[in-house]
Amino acid sequence: MMEAQHKLQVNLDEEMKRSYLDYAMSVIIGRALPDVRDGFKPVHRRVLWAMYEMGNTHDKP
Questions:
Q1: Backbone angles phi, psi at 12, to 5 degrees
Q2: The whole model's pTM is what?
Q3: Is 6 helix (H, G, I), strand (E, B) or coil?
Q4: Chain segment 23-50, per-residue pLDDT in tens
């Protein structure tokens, strides 16, 4: 049995602008802005954690 299909008509130009803006803001907030707790961006935090796990600390040559 076939269910009823509901289609929503949208303006492609407006939808693309809105979607891109939503995506861009999430990237800026999630990746580009430093965290207020320590000032690190997520990528820098991952690098420092990997270095710590490998034993690369300040007290070793």
A1: -60, -40
A2: 0.56
A3: coil
A4: 999 999 999 999 999 999 999 999 999 9
Q: Which of 55, 32, 56 is nearest to 44 (CA)?
A: 32
Residue closest to 53 by CA, chosen among 31, 16, 45: 45
Instruction: Return d(Cα 29, Cα 50) in angstroms, integer.
Output: 23
Q: Give yes or no for a contact between 41 and 31, defined as CB atoms under 8 angstroms apart.
A: yes
- DSSP label at 19? H
Q: Measured between alpha carbons, how far is 45 from 53 in angstroms, rounded to an integer?
A: 12
* Residue that the structure tokens 């580009």 belong to: 32
What distance in Å separates the CA atoms of residue 53 and residue 47, rounded to the nearest whole number? Answer: 10
Residue 40 neighbours by CB distance under 10 Å = 13
Say which amino acid occupies 22: D
